[in-house]
Amino acid sequence: MALRVVAAVVAVLLAAAPMVFGANHVVGDSQQWNTGVDYTTWVSNQKFAVGDTLEFKYGPTHDVYEVSQSDHDSCSTNSPIKTHSGGDTSITLSSGSSYYLCSTSNHCSLGMKLAVTTAASSTPSGGGSGSSPPSNSPPSGSTTPSPPPPPPKGSGSGRVSSGVAVAGALALGLALMG
């Protein structure tokens, strides 16, 4: 009996783990964090949500500097928020915008910089280098704001609830076995 309970708990935890933690985005996909990659296009093809992870994979001639927007825009490395090195850096996203660049001489000016905008809600959005987050203000002259649009299909907005349902079904199945 105790073995069934342990098995049910393990099944619930394994099924729920991917739903609790966000998606992992390898920056630049197969090209990784490197010179010659169009990170603006890469970002525009991603959906970022709070809790997602950016994974920077890079060689010994690169690093990752978390910087302010103005430092990102000017490729300044004089006052980084955080610095990372070692070839594999994972950063968990919070809401708002975050900015990254490589501090190796001339790499940023050659395009090795990244701007990411993460949605505050469960509706993810991407933002590219030099792009602005979408505006939620009503059009001028409007007196009542319209309700927000529904989340896009496949946006992950049902991740937790569907994960709980799957975990519950697995736990029930294991409890009834044997």
UniProtKB/TrEMBL annotation:
One of its GO terms (molecular function) is electron transfer activity. InterPro entries: Cupredoxin, Phytocyanin-like, Phytocyanin_dom. Residues 23-120 form the Phytocyanin domain. It holds the Pfam family Cu_bind_like. Residues 131-144 have a biased composition (Low complexity). GO terms for cellular component: plasma membrane. The keyword Glycoprotein applies. Residues 1-22 form the signal peptide. The keyword Zinc does not apply. Residues 119-161 are annotated as: Disordered. Keywords: Glycoprotein, Metal-binding, Signal. PANTHER family: BLUE COPPER PROTEIN, UCLACYANIN-2. This is Phytocyanin domain-containing protein. It comes from Acorus gramineus. The lineage of its organism: Eukaryota, Viridiplantae, Streptophyta, Embryophyta, Tracheophyta.
